[in-house]
């Protein structure tokens, strides 16, 4: 839970978005979880919440591998994307839709990109210049 809170801060999630990602527990329950996590207390979460947190960790990990800085990863999450699955909306919109499937879809998209499947260009990619053979050096 502490790691989820740190990622939520990094991504700039609102309180409402945090609740949606976690399956919309009551605000009092959410604040109790936060308090327990910050105090390193015992915390029991159900399988749905654990799956959602695990998915957020997977998204964060994928962004960390695909982008050289956390800032670029967050920018990718918040920039409208041309991939059909995102409907020209930012991936964070799908991740914070409240459904576990929305979160998992973003996670699977990143996993596909990590696996080498083509990822449609985004505005971040506009300045990318492909390498030519002269730039490849074998030692």
From TrEMBL:
One of its GO terms (molecular function) is DNA binding. It holds the Pfam family Xre_MbcA_ParS_C. It comes from the Bacteria. Residues 65-113 form the Antitoxin Xre/MbcA/ParS-like toxin-binding domain. Residues 2-57 form the Antitoxin Xre-like helix-turn-helix domain. This is DUF2384 domain-containing protein. It comes from Afipia massiliensis. InterPro entries: Xre-like_HTH (IPR046847), Xre/MbcA/ParS-like_toxin-bd (IPR024467).
């Amino acid at each position: 839970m502490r790691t989820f809170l740190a990622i939520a801060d990094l991504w700039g999630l609102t309180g409402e978005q945090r609740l949606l990602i976690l399956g919309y527990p009551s605000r009092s329950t959410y604040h109790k979880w936060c308090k327990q996590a910050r105090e390193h207390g015992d915390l029991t979460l159900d399988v749905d919440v654990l799956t959602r947190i695990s998915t957020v960790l997977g998204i964060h990990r994928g962004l960390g591998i695909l982008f050289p800085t956390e800032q670029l990863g967050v920018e990718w999450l918040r920039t409208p994307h041309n991939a059909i699955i995102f409907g020209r909306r930012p991936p964070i919109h799908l991740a914070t839709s409240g459904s576990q499937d929305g979160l998992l879809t973003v996670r699977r998209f990143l996993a596909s990109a990590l696996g080498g499947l083509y990822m449609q260009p985004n505005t971040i990619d506009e300045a990318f210049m492909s390498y030519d053979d002269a730039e490849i050096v074998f030692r």
